[in-house]
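[Backbone geometry]
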Amino acid sequence: MTTTAQNLISASILRLRMKSPFFATLAMFAKFSPTQEIFTAATDGKDIFYNEDFIRSLPTKQIDGLLLHEVLHAALLHIPRRGTREPELWNIAADIVINGMIAQESNFELPAGGLRDSALENFTVEEVYEILQKRPRLQFTDLDLLNQAPSDVPGGSTTVVLSASAKAELESHWRNALQQARVIAQSSKAGKIPLGIQRELDRLTSPQLDWRSYLWRYLTQTPNDFRDFDRRFIGQGLYLETLSGESVKVYVAIDTSGSIDNQILRIFLSEVRGILDAYPHLKCDLYYADAAAYGPYELESDSKFPPPEGGGGTSFVPFFQAIKADQQEQLSSLCIYLTDGYGDFPAPSPAAPTLWVVIAGGLESAEFPFGEVVRIDCFADT
């Protein structure tokens, strides 16, 4: 019985190779294991689990669609991206997005009962989740994003919470898979990256912080105004009128000391791109900084980044000294420093509003003598 189901899985992966080199490459990064603890198929974020009886009950196209559904959940990091969100609603949102992708592929078919919502499936999972929170709860029991591997498979886990190390390992595994799948798809005449997947890939390499929200908080003329605003309205441009008559200045420093490797530097630059794209009238002065400050480089939304400079020790003092005179002339301004937090701080603390963007594992937030601290992950990017 097991051999028959395994043969069906193997045949499906072979068909994936003919239908889509991109999807086939992703499938090669997953382990497929039978289990009786689930009714259909599911994933713990890395491996795919399937019910043998259910697999054998499906026609060929639906086997392919079902397995692709689970592979895409894993590859697009739907479990680590969930964070602290409510698991069932997040699963529903992820299913809607994934099923919309698969429905656009003519060579695949979803089993009966798959969630579809054509009005939502072109959004990101995070956006769908926010929309569903305002709707009556769907009654859906076939959840396929697991907190742990089933206990009847080898190595089945009893861990319910995804630890930081497990999350980092999972992200590294699938980002590597996505990178290889991209290369293979681009080099193959039959290969292409489906539009739905490309949207998700763009999301995975986009800034981690909601810069429109952060900039709104700091740049509005009356600080109390932002306390009760609805973040969702920002994306619709409903708060731009307050700032439309102003010239907004942001001073950005990127830590380029010896403790910042190329991977972290790329993540920092991605966040700067998010800053530049946040508001059309924003003006940005960029500095690279180690024990000295290099700049300023005046940037706009379509500017190319200048080559990084630095590599020495870390002092935050030169940056704040460099901008002090210019900042006094600005009506609305903000300092943003992307760093691991380990360095010498100016004394006394500058009066400038400051947002510290600190990598996970950096200096503890309580150790910063001034400003607000937010954290970003430093996982491998694609």
The CA atoms of residues 130 and 328 lie 40 Å apart.
